[in-house]
Design a protein that fits this description.
- The protein is mainly alpha-helical.
- The chain is built from six helices and two strands; from the N terminus they run ααααααββ.
- A two-stranded antiparallel sheet has the order 1-2.
- The longest helix is centred in the first third of the chain and has 27 residues.
- It is globular.
């Protein structure tokens, strides 16, 4: 049984890494704008990750095993953000300005929330899945729609609008 969960963990890592690297590559090459790449990462990561939960058996300990995936990426984001790790493709894909320190905000918080929702809710409650899907789809789609149709500025943040950007 443990071997199947190790395989599930490996597959989950591979799926997450491939999704992230595809988007990093597209942004780095300039084929996809950086802001769109960030949002595609947001939109796709949650559903792919939750689908991989099905690979693990029902043992409650597997929530921690699965949480290793977003935790590893979150640690990587932290190390990139503080300058210990150099990864220009990731910085370009996940930042608005190209400043590595931006990775210490949204992407880092995003990763922390992924870890917490996985550990707290896992397969025990649909709340975690719904929260992840809302966070992923909501955040990603809000920016995409807000850039296209956003006109009403938020009073306390002139760079943002009510429609999502």
């Amino acid at each position: 049984m443990i071997n199947n969960n190790i395989v599930a963990l490996a597959i989950t890592f591979i799926v997450a890494l491939v999704w992230l690297r595809i988007n990093d590559y597209l942004a780095h090459k300039g084929w996809v704008e950086s802001h769109l790449s960030r949002k595609l990462i947001h939109i796709g990561t949650g559903p792919l990750f939750v689908l991989c939960w099905l690979l693990f058996n029902e043992n409650p300990i597997n929530r921690y095993l699965a949480a290793l995936v977003p935790m590893a990426f979150t640690v990587q984001f932290f190390l990139i953000g503080i300058g210990v790790m150099k990864d220009e493709a990731s910085v370009k894909a996940m930042s608005r300005s190209g400043d590595r320190r931006e990775v210490l905000r949204g992407p880092l918080y995003y990763g922390i929330i992924f870890v917490l929702l996985t550990i707290i809710f896992w397969k025990d409650s649909p709340i975690g899945i719904v929260a992840l899907m809302l966070m992923c789809g909501g955040d990603g789609l809000a920016d995409i729609f807000g850039r296209k149709w956003g006109t009403r500025k938020i009073i306390w943040n002139e760079r943002k609008n009510w429609e999502g950007k």
